[in-house]
Write a structure and sequence with these properties.
With 63 residues, this protein is mainly beta. The chain contains one helix and three strands; from the N terminus they run H-E-E-E. It has one domain. The chain has a three-stranded antiparallel β-sheet, with no helix packed on it. Strand 1 and strand 2 form a beta hairpin. It is elongated, with a radius of gyration of 17 Å.
């Protein structure tokens, strides 16, 4: 099973890039594999002048 994160890309013009606000992002993850199961988890928090967002995910796979 492939648990690598999927990434989407998009084009952005130089004019639009000038309007991008700065912010802070903090994230981390953990992966543990045992003879019985594998567990992957991750968290992300983002703070910008426009607001705050946070997320978390947990994935498990039984062997």
């Amino acid at each position: 099973m492939n648990i690598a994160p999927q990434v989407a890309t998009a084009e952005i013009s130089d004019a639009d890039l000038e309007n991008v606000s700065g912010g802070i992002a903090v994230g981390g993850g953990l992966y543990v594999e045992t003879p019985v199961a594998a567990v992957a988890s991750g968290v992300l928090a983002v703070a910008t002048p426009e607001g705050v967002a946070a997320g978390a995910a947990v994935n498990t796979v039984a062997h």
